[in-house]
TrEMBL record:
Residues 46-154 form the TonB-dependent receptor plug domain. Residues 1-21 form the signal peptide. This is Vitamin B12 transporter. One of its GO terms (molecular function) is siderophore uptake transmembrane transporter activity. The lineage of its organism: Bacteria, Pseudomonadati, Bacteroidota, Flavobacteriia, Flavobacteriales. Belongs to the TonB-dependent receptor family.
Amino acid sequence: MNKKRICISAFFALITSCGYAQVKDSIQVNSLDEVVISDTKFAQSKEKSGKVITKITAAELQKKSGQSLATVLSSVAGVEINGNQSANGKNLGYYIRGGKNQQVLIVIDGNPVTDASGISFEYDLRLLPIDQIESIEIMKGAASTLYGSGAATAVLNITLKKSSKKPLQATAYLNIGSNNTSTNHKYNGQDFNQGFSVNGTVKKVSYLVSLNSTETNGMSQIAEPNPDAYYDKDRFSRINYRSKVGFKATQHLALDFFGNYDKVNSDYDFPFDNTGLNDTDKNHSKTEQFRLGFSPKYTYNNGEFHLNTSFNKIQRAYQEYNLWTLATEKSAYEARSISVDAFNKYRFNSEFSLITGSSYQFHDMNSETPYSNIVRNLTKFNMIDPYVTGVYTSESGLNVNAGLRLNVHSQYGNQLVYNINPSYHFGKEVPVKILSSISTAFITPSLYQLYSEYGTATLTPEKNTTIESGFEVVLLNRKLTCNAVGFYREQHNSIGFDATYHYANIQGLNKAKGIETTVRYDVNSKLNLNANYTFTQVDEALNRLIPKHKINGAIDFSPTQRLFLNASYQYVDGRQDAFFDGNTYTTRVAKLGSYQLVNALVKYELIKTRMSIFGTLTNILNADFVENIGYSTRGRNFKLGLNITL
């Protein structure tokens, strides 16, 4: 049977199941009590949100023990994190609604994060271990009205772990696993992850200190086309220190301070003509990140005021073997970013609230490479963005979220964006929410695109417009949840190379459209089923590494209070990739085949709430597939882990 037919049939099965369950069920249901923050920056009931926001809670992260952050995100409807099945050091691609990395904004504890020294403004998720994360909200669509530059296709709102309410709590974990391709069968330990945290609350003071360490070896980053040749095994090493102190100054005023240090060392290779000729042990990269911040919060009778501030410094160093000169070359990049976001929510009455705020960002960078240098005092810009959002939530079920943001940029001038997001919840007797929105977003040109030897100082922002509509239904006393959203996105003024090999705003319009749907059914307290399907269609200019069809499914089963079992399935449709052909010195396009992954997890509590062990088996069928031309992917692998809480 044609695989595309399988995907399309699965999609219609999901939609049909929603409709059938709605007709069949006549049980009175309660409103959703889950709380989300991404579409207003303040906590509100998911029922009153005009978006379908996916929230991965701490409990759900526990069910995904042993997985990387990229792999967890890639199981969400509408999200494709390319490289999550490759070697740990492989660059990641964020493909959401036909967009790329720079169109996805990463927010950590309310602070936007980015690497201002990169070609495009984006954040490297490899820096962040999933073990230090409390929860994740994924809000898709243009969201620059609240979040500014970069929020064109999605906002990944990440909340790090918080302090325990106890005076002292300590946690520790240790994971060990294999790191094989489909042709390797070494099941000795090659993938290690360990860490601990000490945290608690004593009177008005809360504290948290944590450490994470990851070490991976045994797998070449590039594919191994010659089975008789030896390929260098590329090492990946990561260490993360995190500290946080909170002080409850008064009943209304809370102060939080944080400091993080992250370091990644990685070997890497570039495929050359897909032959593996560029395999070498001389390519090495090191990235260091320093993050500091202060976040006071003040609550009063009719509202609350937040101030999120952060300073981020990233240093990247590369040692790379030049295949043409046969010399080892060194490059260094450094970027500094300051972010300040002050915003206030005022409740006029039970139905209407007004969110007002202003953000400030400053970025600069410098670099030294064998080909050119970029000087910091000439390579910088700042942005000041006032914004306002009105939120109307009525007892009748009508909800409206609408806002404006003015981006004032020191280089290119002003940019205005807006969003209008009405939704309607029919209530308990007809537990359906329908939603729609039109919103705009902008992507600021990066420092590199403005000021490097390929840069153009007159660049203006890329512009995005997204229209979406859909529904969410909750049935069977909240046991069954179904949602589906259709979207249409237009991308204007994209930044690319012109005929002189300089960055320029490319005239023309690029489009993306699709459908994202999710079904979750809690059969009983022991058995849960969930699945999602994504259809994405893009113009040829955007068509790289984006699957047209994608399916995720999972079964969670807890036969006892201490034993948890999970089985998951993923289908990724064929994609289009481009690679450099060393014979013709041209870029060629290749079609990648579809692939399917089957995984399993077993988890058992040895001591209730104190000690647990888990085991995972991934790519059980040992599928041999390609994520990127010339790069290796993981075959069948295992992981064992131990978690202790005191």
